[in-house]
Design goal:
365 residues; alpha/beta; four-stranded antiparallel β-sheet; eight-stranded parallel β-sheet
Amino acid sequence: MRRRFYLRPLPLAGFHRSRYDPERTEIIEKLAGRDDLGFTHLELIDRTPAGAFARILLASWGQGGFSNEDWYHPPFDGADLWRQFDRLIEPRPAVGGLAMDHPHLMGIVNVTPDSFSDGGSFSSTASAIEHGLRLASEGAAILDVGGESTRPGSDAVPLETELARVLPVIEGLVGKTGAIISVDTRKAEVMRRAIAAGASIVNDVSALSHDPAALETVAELGCPVVLMHARGDPKTMQDDPRYDDVLLDVFDYLESRIEAATGAGVERARIIVDPGIGFGKTLEHNLELIAGMTALHALGVPLLIGASRKRFIGTISGVANAGERVHGSVAVALEAARQGAQILRVHDVDATRQALAVMRAVEAV
């Protein structure tokens, strides 16, 4: 592993009030080009091949913002560092017609008998369609339809079974809601047929690495795609996962998958990344990712966070039943929104929408 530097902005919500205050000496940079979220300080992380880390706080100054004089100066790839900085502040293009200037809710529609939270609740086509329409009415801008559980310890589902689960639901939702439909799958054939049925986004927990045909398929389809980090296969991913530094390891992996996707012909403007909370991570790993997620904005693409009802929330809160982890899930969603996540994948759409509406109202004062 080569020595590398990373940038993690420290966000300021509701910063617009002081942007032009003549009493301020620092410049407030827009995070991901957003008018409602900025930063004046960065954490510069120095990672060496020996595994040593140094973290240095940097502040913007004057009318020129950050400059070369601010950087820490041992030997490093300055071009890489400035590329990260440029990607931190550049606006994100719209995804599926959704402007990436505020957080959007992705409602979860599991058409499975064994999902960790609501397995079996919506396994029939009719109940899954009804559930999807309800989530859309509650404020979901995206409906994520999945027919294969990827919970820890789950087994793979045959292609025909997955197709039989998701295609009728997608077809039943299209035309009945203004929400965008995404398909949660690792299989290229499911991706292809789901898009033909009316889905608009591919959401792949393997970041297009599970199926050898997935990269080429998504490139041909020309649709937006979510690339998620996961350590290992769902069957074994929670068997003692280890990282040198979970935030930086996830950053490097997602960067490599973005490169693989663009190299296969997927447009960068169509890529979304997801750090994979709960996928091959311990409680401590999940918390480190949530606390440091602003570093992932340096990848230059929209950020999706999916932590809803997951086990670590139950461990912290003492709530064993996944369906009762609403309050803890909303807390994580608010923190993700505060750190600039553009898409929040949630089970409890209405509760999350209410919390976000109040948070944004307070920030706008």
